[in-house]
Each structure stands twice: as C-alpha cells, then as structure tokens.
Amino acid sequence: MHDFLIKKLNTNSLETELLNIGYDKSYSFKGKEKFEYLNFKIFNITSAQGNILKQLALSVGADCATHKQVITGEIQNSDCILGGNISQLRTIAKKLQLQPFSLKDLGQVIEEKIIEKEPTKTKIMGILNITPDSFSDGGKYYSVENAIHHLEELINDGADIIDIGAESTKPGAKEVSADEQLKRIIPVLNYINKNKISIPISIDTRNSEVADVCAPLGASIINDVSGLDYDKNMANIVSKHGLEVIIQHSKGTPETMQNNPQYNNLMDDIFKSLKNKIYYAISKGIKKENIIVDAGIGFGKSREQNFEILKRWKELQSLNCPIMLGISRKSLLNMPDASNEEKDLYTLALNSILINENIDYIRVHNVKIHKKLLEIFP
Description:
- By secondary structure, this protein is an alpha/beta fold.
- The protein is built from 13 helices and eleven strands.
- Strands 4-5-6-7-8-9-10-11 form an eight-stranded parallel barrel, surrounded by five helices. It has a three-stranded antiparallel β-sheet with strand order 1-3-2.
- β7 (221-224), α9 and β8 form a beta-alpha-beta unit.
C-alpha cells in the first residue's frame, strides 16, 4: 500500500493554499469558493418552496434537508437546511430568483448572506457598576469618588466604551427605581462633561426615564438587558434621542430568569427573539445601524446553554447587527469562591476565543488584560 501524505486543512486562507500548490492566480479568488462550505437554516418554508429548493440544490451538487413529508405534501411548512460550497450556493440563489412562490426574495437573501463582512477589531466595553449589590464588585465603586476613580482607570486601561450601571441585574436582583439610579449615575456624567471626556458612554438600564435623563447628559448608548421588554417606552426614548441600543436576549426578569430556563432549540429561539426585537426597534424609529445585539450569557440560561452560545454565537451574524457578549466573572466559569483576579484570567481565556473569531464587542470588568491581549493579536 502506498504511503500517501495527507493532512486536513484548517485555515481561513484557502486562496493562499491554492496559490501555494500552483493554482491559477487569475482564478484563485473565484476558485476558493469551491472549497468554502456554508450551511443555512431557512425557517418555515412551504412544501412547494421546499421541493423546488431541494431540486435546485441537487442540480448543482449541493443538498437541502427538509421534513421527510415535504416531498409528499402531507405537511404545509417545514424548516430546511441548505448546504453547499459558495459557488454552488451562488448558483442556487440565482436560479431561485427565476422561480415562483416568492422564491425570488429567498434567492436575494441567500446572496446577501453569502457575502461576509470584513472583520473588525473587537472593541472593549468596560463595566462601571455604581451599585451596592452587583454580583462581582457590588459596593466597591458605590461612592461617587470611587466610581470616578474607577472610570479613569477603565479609560486609562484602554476601554473603547464605558458601561455605567446603577441597578444590579444578577439572578434574584430586585428592581431599582429610576430616581435612585439617576442619583447614582448623574454625578459621574457631570464629571465626564466637566472634564470633556469623549469616550462613548453606555447606560446599563431597563428604565426609559433613566435613559431619557442620561441622553442629554452625554450618554450615547443604552444597554437594555431586557431587550426593550421591561419598559415599553424604552424604544421611543432611544429613537427620540438617536441613541445606539444594545438589545439583549433574556428569559424572564433577574428575579426569575434562572428558575429552570427551558428552550425548544436554544440558538433558534434566541435568533428568532432577537430578530423580532430588531423589527420592533426599527418600527419605533430606531435606525438599524444603531442596534447591537447580545445573546445574554447568564440571563435565563444554564451553564451548558451558555457554552452552547459561546460555540455558536456566529449564527447570530445573520441578524446583520454587531454582536456583543459578556462573560466576565459570571457563573459559567464555575468558580464561586475564586477571587476576581482569578476569574479575570479565565474570563480572558474564553474571551480570547471570541476575539480570535472577530466578535464585535466584549463586555468586561478587567479592561487592562483584555486590551493587552488585543495588542498581541495580529
């Protein structure tokens, strides 16, 4: 038996690998598409649409999986999984645009999804908790003096955004009134204005009154862990001031969210929920480019579900919004008795994977070590 030398390729630079074996340089950009494979999940198509899609996929050597009864027409609707190399998928998308049953629209969407945006360097959101009861540093920066000191630390350590929160949203936490939140936040915003600090300021709040007061004082982002659910006026306030908004997925309120969270399909449920929230936000006048989404690590998820999100977060890129994740010092680390310094090291280890995968934003307590890591990455 001949001893062939063979290895499995694991690279994002297939074009370089093709050129290294002497592939035609003038065709390498298109040629690489024959070796890059994608799988799309398409929700709730009709049996007629599914049968046409499957036939088109098979005609170019790709495949499309549907419910087993789509071919018989015994069910009306099915989800499907379409898979193939990029070249095949482009052909399918073109052919779909010549088909009936609204498949022209599907073809156009598939064409859009094939195109990957240029990766941008991950930005760091530094956490400033002005609370007596946050899970990690509650009380540490509760006084105005300590809050301002930590604000300066976060800026000096290289934060791209400061996220100021005056209400703990840890599991079991109770709501804090708008008046109390503003009493804690306004002195810090006044300091920022007085000293002409230009770094973007996010306010971590579910309360529209807090957002409405903080916007004229310099806040440019609202980080709503309820995903616009808690306060139905929040979307109106964000729209009114032209703010950016971080729409997070959560299941229940902080008081109830960890009471045995259940999902039909974790990533599908998060995806659909965030998609609906994006539609809702836009309907209220919020610009699509002002929306950031967050899968909500620790907000109504088990430890296993949190790690599933970390493995599959890129599926949310199909929402066409920047993505943020926050794992800093959270319970998924399974280190309840460890010091914050130790938790920060393991947070850094997990975030290094996200940074390598070009996530848009990470939300962290320890900005300094994450900034150093970003400087190391090419």
